[in-house]
Amino acid sequence: ATTENEDQSLWYGDAIEILLDTDSHRYYQIAVNPAGAVVDLDRGADRSAWFRWESQAEIATHVADDHWTVEIRIPVTDDENDPLNQVVGRKPSQSLPWHFNLCRQRIRDNGTEYSAFSPTGTGSFHEPMKFAHLYDGRSHAFDVDPTVTDWLIESRAAEELQRNRKTEEAFTAWLALAEREGATEFQVATALSEAADCARRLEDFAQADALAERIPIEAIRQTTRMETLLAQREWDAVGEQFGDIDIAEWPFWQIGAGAFARGRAFQAARQGEKADADFQLALDYTSDPGIRLSLLKSMGWNAEQNLGNDEAALAAYRKIADSTTHTGGADYFYGLQGAAGLLAKKGAYDEALAILDQVDPEKIGGSWRGSLKLSRAEVLQAAGRAEEARSIFQQIAEDEQAHAAHREKARPYLEKAQGN
Known about the structure:
Layout: E1 15-21, E2 28-32, E3 38-42, E4 58-63, E5 68-73, E6 76-77, E7 87-88, E8 98-108, E9 111-116, E10 132-134, H1 151-163, H2 167-178, H3 185-201, H4 205-213, H5 218-231, H6 235-242, H7 252-268, H8 272-284, H9 289-306, H10 310-321, H11 330-345, H12 349-356, H13 367-382, H14 386-398, H15 404-419
Parallel strand pairs: 6-7
Antiparallel strand pairs: 1-2, 1-8, 2-3, 4-5, 8-9, 8-10
């Protein structure tokens, strides 16, 4: 938005803000944009004097194709005689910590997104009581007033109820948050969409639809309606009602969720090309590592089963296998199996086994232990290493903790091996 320091049009574009509340002063604000322009304010001064303060910060930025970075060096002094220059404060300690926040705004033609290191739970960054602690020393839990609450604290409690499968309690909590006085439009939309998710888990689809209609943000409302149709396996209805919508024109922060939902419906309806287009769009707008793995799994399955494109499927599964996060979940294991199966189909048996070796089945509980063992045995069988395969099939067949379906699947291989 600007290349000039102290130009307040900086806030019409991307920027990060550092808010510093020292032991001596409450509080300073330093905003920087990708061009390296800076606006610094002393929020502790009279409003008319806010912009007279100079942080004298040293700043360097770098803009890449898909991100930008900023490095900043902020001089600090404990001399309070020159209030117009530099941050005033002494080295923060556990007994006298500073408080800070690091905030970001992203401005696009199709939406605006605000985020913070220490979320404030309001529509503003300027909530000093929500700043994080900054101090030198060992990890320390500071005293808090347990009676203080806000939308953010209560939403985390509702999320915990959902994780613990206390769905009815979570439903009630989200409804209360949707009606909480002072909640922002985005908070209301979030609470209602989460309440609708609870209603779907309780198989009260009429309630889920009714809640969706109350959502004040159209893109979130339409995504919620699609999710409710998906929960009822109404694949064609999703296409009929939402197939012509240009999701790419939605607020950018909702494109990923909307495209993923519609793509799953197209996938289930065997409309592979449309599903792939939506999955690609969703991947471009999704940063959460766990959701990206789910997306890649869907992309791989769609390419393999609907489009008959093994190379595209293998590329998606390889990206899952290359993940360094969420490596203990079903999507990751599915990706390993998918990649190994397609590599074995090409005759690349050693590479397929190397992919499967990324996980030790003996350290995995549940049905995935037997499933991954079966995948390994099948690759060995295809590679002509019959004795090694037979040994694994035998383990599965005799493992009383293995899933019954896996034991049943192992037995024909054993019978065939014995016949030979």
